[in-house]
């Protein structure tokens, strides 16, 4: 969001380009009106009552001259640079903090600190891994719904209504997670492949994580910087319990998760209570939309969120189910494959915030130029968009190379074999293709092309799972990574094609996107 001072500075620069010397505030007011500003726009954009009051303010506080014009431009440039840095830090921290726990675990393994305590039993370790991936996949769809609907109301200037609307989605997500958890528990009891206490512990772990992810999404609407701070605190608490208290990995994880969940519940409840009190005082408590309407409107984003995490963890699920029955396990991921893909996932999580920021900049550039667009400018504008798009892709690839050099040089354990390194490189390549597809998805979402995103990611996910499953069972479980690379490449190519087609049909895209 651009601050009011920045908007006024931009307006002053525009006024000075019309006339560098002002006789009185009436002349300033006339120029503002000639630039197309109405009283309604001025109230919304600048917070002044009408054009005359804004003209008086500009005339009294800004000396319009060629010298002051250059100073204003320099001042505005510095403010713009600071504003861009703030946006980048905010978006980077929002995503990077979720990579922090995994990064810390890899660092502990690299420094040989994480081998102080007793390891988990193989059956329990496989169940905990499965529960973690299931919680992210199932809750990922509801997290997308919460974030999208909350962001919608935030842009409208109604944060309290946004938080109230998100709670029915949380209830629906919690009920869905409980039902799926009970089904998984019943299926585990029916199969009889795991000890009952392990199954119940894994089910509880799954429910806690699912609720935690959804509440963190709601908290992000309520308090923007709290989810990164909470995830940072979670990581610090885990490292403290694991290294200094010397607890085993599972106990440290459970204590950290429960403590974090309690803190998040208290913060969300506090925000809800404050909203209710504010609504009672103001008397403004609008009715909530029907849950069925919300589900219908946000279902594409729910499918996208589920497909997103299914794509990330699909190869591990396949590799885990393809384990040799002679080992006596139904589901187990090879330690070397797990470590290699964890390192690749760190590179992915480092790329995601950069891609989100680049997508934000690209769309802002696209939106900004639509304000002064006509038929004659469309063909030239396509060339500019085309160049900017491939520049964005190039920056992403360069940053990926830097991330790979950093993680392989500082995070990767020194005792890895050549095979493990190759698996990590293949996994990172697959995540690079996938993150370029995510960049395209961000652009298509902004252009109101939600269905096209779903049509691009679902076939790619099916190819990922099908090819990975066949190769994992015919050749080796480690070949599941080939399904990831192939599916991600398909998603990247299909989504890239759709973005380029949208750029070629700008007039049609402007119409359906609601410009």
UniProtKB/TrEMBL annotation:
Domain of life, source organism: Bacteria
Signal peptide: none
Keywords: Membrane, Transmembrane, Transmembrane helix
Amino-acid biosynthesis as UniProt keyword: no
Transmembrane segments: 96-113, 125-144, 165-186, 198-219, 226-245, 251-273, 294-312, 318-337, 344-367, 387-411, 431-458, 470-493
The protein's name: ABC transporter permease
Annotated source species: Nostoc parmelioides FACHB-3921
């Amino acid at each position: 969001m651009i601050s009011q001072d920045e908007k006024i500075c931009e307006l002053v620069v525009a006024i000075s380009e019309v006339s560098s010397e002002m006789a009185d505030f009436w002349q300033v007011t006339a120029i503002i009106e000639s630039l197309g500003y109405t009283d309604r726009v001025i109230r919304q954009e600048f917070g002044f009552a009408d054009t005359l009051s804004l003209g008086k303010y500009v005339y009294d506080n800004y000396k319009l001259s060629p010298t002051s014009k250059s100073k204003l431009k320099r001042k505005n440039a510095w403010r713009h640079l600071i504003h861009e840095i703030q946006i980048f830090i905010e978006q980077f921290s929002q995503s990077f903090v979720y990579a922090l726990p995994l990064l810390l675990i890899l660092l502990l393994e690299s420094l040989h600190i994480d081998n102080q305590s007793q390891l988990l039993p193989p059956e329990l370790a496989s169940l905990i891994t499965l529960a973690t991936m299931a919680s992210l996949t199932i809750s990922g769809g509801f997290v997308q719904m919460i974030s999208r609907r909350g962001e919608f109301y935030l842009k409208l200037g109604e944060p309290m209504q946004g938080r109230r609307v998100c709670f029915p989605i949380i209830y629906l997500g919690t009920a869905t997670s409980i039902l799926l958890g009970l089904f998984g528990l019943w299926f585990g009891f029916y199969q009889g492949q795991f000890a009952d206490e392990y199954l119940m512990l894994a089910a509880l772990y799954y429910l806690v994580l699912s609720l935690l992810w959804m509440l963190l999404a709601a908290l992000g609407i309520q308090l923007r910087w709290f989810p990164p701070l909470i995830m940072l605190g979670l990581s610090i608490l885990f490292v403290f319990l694991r290294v200094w208290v010397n607890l085993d990995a599972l106990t440290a994880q459970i204590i950290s998760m429960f403590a974090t969940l309690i803190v998040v519940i208290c913060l969300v409840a506090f925000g809800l209570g404050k909203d209710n009190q504010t609504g009672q005082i103001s008397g403004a408590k609008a009715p909530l939309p029907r849950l069925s309407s919300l589900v219908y409107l946000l279902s594409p984003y729910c499918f996208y969120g589920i497909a997103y995490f299914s794509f990330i963890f699909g190869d591990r699920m396949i590799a885990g189910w393809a384990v040799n029955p002679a080992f006596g396990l139904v589901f187990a991921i090879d330690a070397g494959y797990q470590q290699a893909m964890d390192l690749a996932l760190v590179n992915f999580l480092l790329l995601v915030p950069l891609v989100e920021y680049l997508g934000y900049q690209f769309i802002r550039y696209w939106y900004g130029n639509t304000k002064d667009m006509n038929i004659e400018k469309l063909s030239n504008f396509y060339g500019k968009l085309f160049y900017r798009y491939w520049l964005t892709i190039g920056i992403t690839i360069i940053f990926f190379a830097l991330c790979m050099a950093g993680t392989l040089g500082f995070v990767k354990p020194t005792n890895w074999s050549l095979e493990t390194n190759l698996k990590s490189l293949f996994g990172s390549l697959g995540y690079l293709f996938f993150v370029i597809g995510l960049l395209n998805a961000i652009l298509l979402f902004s252009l109101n092309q939600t269905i096209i995103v779903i049509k691009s990611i679902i076939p790619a996910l099916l190819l990922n799972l099908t090819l990975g499953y066949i190769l994992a069972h015919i050749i080796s479980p480690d070949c599941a990574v080939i399904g990831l690379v192939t599916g991600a490449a398909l998603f990247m190519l299909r989504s890239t094609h759709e973005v380029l087609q949208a750029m070629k049909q700008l007039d049609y895209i402007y119409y359906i996107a609601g410009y």
